[in-house]
Amino acid sequence: MVDTLKKPEFDELRPGIKVPAKETILTPRFYTTDFDAMAKMDISVNEDELQAILEEFRADYNRHHFVRDEEFNQSWEHIDGEKRRLFIEFLERSCTAEFSGFLLYKELGRRIKDKNPVLAECFNLMSRDEARHAGFLNKAMSDFNMSLDLGFLTQSRKYTFFEPKFIFYATYLSEKIGYWRYITIYRHLEAHPEDRIYPIFRFFENWCQDENRHGDFFDAVMKAQPQMLNDWKAKLWARFFLLSVFVTMFLNDIQRADFYACLGLNARDYDIDVIRKTNETAGRVFPVILDVDNPEFFQRLDLCTENNAKLAKIANSKAPKLVQFFQKLPLYVSNVWQLVRLYLMKPIDMAQFQGVVR
Question: What does 90-110 look like in DSSP terms, one character per residue?
Answer without folding.
Answer: HHHHHHHHHHHHHHHHHHHHH
